[in-house]
Amino acid sequence: MDSRPDGASLSLKLGLHPLGASFPVSHARQTAASIRARKGGVPVAALTAYDHPTARLLDEAGVPLILVGDSLGMVVLGHPDTTHVTMDDMRHHLRAVARAQCRALVGCDLPFKSYETPEQAVANARLLMADGAGFVKAEGGREIMAQVRAIVAEGIPFCGHLGMLPQHVVEEGGKYRIKGRDDEGRARLIEDALALEAAGAFACVLELVTPPVAAEITRQCQSMVTIGIGSGPDCDGQILVTPDLVGGFPWFTPRFVKPRLKTGADIRDAVAQWVSEVVGKASDDKDGPSCHP
Ligand code: KIV
Q1: Domain limits of the chain?
Q2: Which of 12, 90, 200, 236 is most enclosed, with most CB atoms within 10 A?
C-alpha cells in the first residue's frame, strides 16, 4: 500500500467497471461522514464533473468529493449563467457521472428554483439521490433553512453554499462579487454558516468569501467542513470547476485559478492539424476515394 498526499490508501485494486473494463481504484469509498471526519485534518480536494470519463479520471486520481455542479450550465451547456439549468439537465449529467461508480462521494446541485419550498426541495433531492447522488447542495443560508431541515430530516446528506451565490447573479447585476467585506456581510455569513451547521449540513461551499471571514467560519463551525472556492487557503478543503483547472473552457478563467493544462488550446491545435492533413490528403488524391474495388 502506498500512502497518498491526501492520506487515503492507494491500493490500486482493480475494480470491475459496469462496461466490463477494469480500472484502478485508488482510494477508500467516501461518504458524507468520512468527508465530515476530515474537519481540521486532511483537506478535502474537491472538483466538479459533468460526464462519465471525467468522473472516472478524477476518481482514479484520488479526488474524494466530486460535485455535479450547476456550473454545468456555463461550462458545458453554453448558458450565460446557472439560472437556465433545469432538474432534467442535472439528472442527465448526474446519471452519467454516477455510472462511473466512483469511490469519491458524488454530490449534485439542486438547480435554480428547484427548492422553493420544503416539499419541492425534498422531492427533487430524492430524485437526485435516486439518480446516484450521495448528497445534494443548494445555495443560501437562513432563507432556505426550512428546506435544509426537511432534506436532512429525510436522511439526505446536505451541503450548503454561501458567499457569492451564482443562482442570484442576475439580482447582483450580472457581477460575481466578493462577500464578507463589511461588518454586516461578515456577520451575516457567519450566522448563516452556523445555522446551516445546526440544521445538519455536513459541508458548505464558501464561494468568493474574503479569506479572513472564510477562516473565521471554518474555525467557528466545529462539525461542518468548509470547502472554499476563491476564498483563501484557510478552509477545510478547496473546490474548483474542473474545466477551469485543466484549461477546458479557455474563453474565461476565474482570477483565482491557475490552470494546470491547456486542454482547450491542445484540442484546437490537434483538430486543426488533423483537418489540414485530411484537406492535404484530399488535394493529393485528385480522383477522390472510390467505394468500389
Ligand atoms: O456549480 C458549481 O460547480 C459549484 C462549485 C463552483 C462549487 O457550485
Answers
A1: 2-263
A2: 90
Ligand 1 binding residues, C-beta < 6 A: 48, 67, 69-71, 109, 161, 205, 229, 239, 241
- The tens digit of pLDDT for each residue in 119-161 reads 999 999 999 999 999 999 999 999 999 999 999 999 999 999 9
State the catalytic residue, choosing from 60, 197, 207, 216: 207
Please write down the long-range contacts of 230-235, taking CB distance under 8 Å and 24 or more positions apart.
230/164, 230/178, 230/254, 230/255, 230/256, 231/163, 231/206, 231/207, 235/43, 235/206
Question: pLDDT, tens digit, for every residue of 180-216?
Answer: 999 999 999 999 999 999 999 999 999 999 999 999 9
Tell me, yes or no, if 197 is annotated catalytic: no
Q: Which atom of ligand 1 is nearest to the CA of 227?
A: 7
Three-state SS at 157? coil
Atom in ligand 1 nearest the alpha carbon of residue 161 = 8
Which residue's CA lies nearest to atom 8 of ligand 1? 69
> Strands 203-207, 158-163: parallel, antiparallel or unpaired by DSSP?
parallel
Q: Which class does domain 2-263 fall in?
A: alpha beta
- Protein residue closest via CA to atom 5 of ligand 1: 69
Partners of 22 in the beta sheet? 16
Q: Give the Å distances, CA to CA, from 102 to 12, 67, 206, 290, 293.
A: 14, 12, 24, 47, 49
User: How far are the Cα atoms of 92, 262, 265 from residue 248, in angstroms, in the given order?
Assistant: 21, 7, 8
